[in-house]
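haha ok so turns out i had the wrong file open the whole time. this is the CORRECT one, sorry everyone. sequence first:
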Amino acid sequence: MKGAAVVIIGAGVTGLSAAWWLARDGVDVLVLDKGVIGYEASSRNGGGATHYQSPLFHEEQRLWPLMDQLLGYPTEYRPERIVIAMTEDQMARYRRMQRILAGLGYRADMMDPQQVRDAVTLAGDRHIGGVHIRTGGQANPQRTVQAYAWAAQDHGARIVQHVPVLGIEMAQGRAVGVRTRDGTIGCDQLVVAAGPQSGVLLRGIGIDLPVAPARAEMIVTEALPLMPLGGVDGNGLYGRQTLRGNLAYGGGWHEWMDDLPLAGKLPRPSTPTITQIALRLAQILPKAAHARVIRSWAGIVENTPDGRPVLDRPEAPGNVTVATMSSVGFGLSPASGRAVRDLVVDGRCGFAEIGKLSLARFAGLDPDWRRLQGWVTPRAEVMA
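then structure:
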């Protein structure tokens, strides 16, 4: 297989957005994925686009309303969100959210119980209020992933599926290619956006990216009458109502996992966690409690120790860009793809200060950090 000026490992939403941003500037880009584009969390998540604690937030908010036009394909982006509080603790968190958004120059209105009922037709009487976020919004993850892929290809990017990257080839202190079952594919620049596998790949070239893979789960209900605003969540859940009327929601306990294989399939059956998702969804939207769950999904996401993404181009080897989004990649994808483009082409992000997303913040991290944070799933002991 012919190499490229830039090879991107991972055809999730971050890798595909980066490919689009690079290709639209005329850069020769090749994207490789071990499976199908967006097969992990990128195409199966809550679709939210309101990451107000990220340094990419302003660019995220600027770009999302423009994405359908820029990409030339639909993402089904819709603005605004309502977050419902079931407890005083949740309400206190949403008040803090409102103050932070106001400080950033964005409007968010606190809601009393009646205002929630008026705005959310599937809500009931058990909530104590909520917040109406007048920025942000949500999009369709499946359509968005496909839109990035098609748009990148329109600009000349190549996307190759079912080609696991088994390692990174180095020469004279630089990455010169990636190793696959079919041989080595050369590159001048490398972007590692391989989600849960990024840590394993980077460790092979001396870059320590601390990530903990975990199972994440979601449910999808049968179609229900459309609410005026599709972006409604809260009570520890993330999600949205689709344009067809389905409720797609996730959130809750993670089953922490060890390093994952670079090739081969991992069984991903759903667990009893989905019953808790359904229970909490029925609590915030009791008029939907009768709806049947028609699909569930269990996939693998990656988490950094502080929960923030890593967007960095380390000095050594100098031509490798690290892009791991720590489970918040979908909403930030318009901005994160642009940031990766800047790191690859210019060596720095030109539209936001992203120093807090560098790998340097993990210097001195305890090697046993996962156990210290409780990010391990106890194994059942085998009885003799």
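The chain has ten helices and 17 strands.
again sry for the mixup
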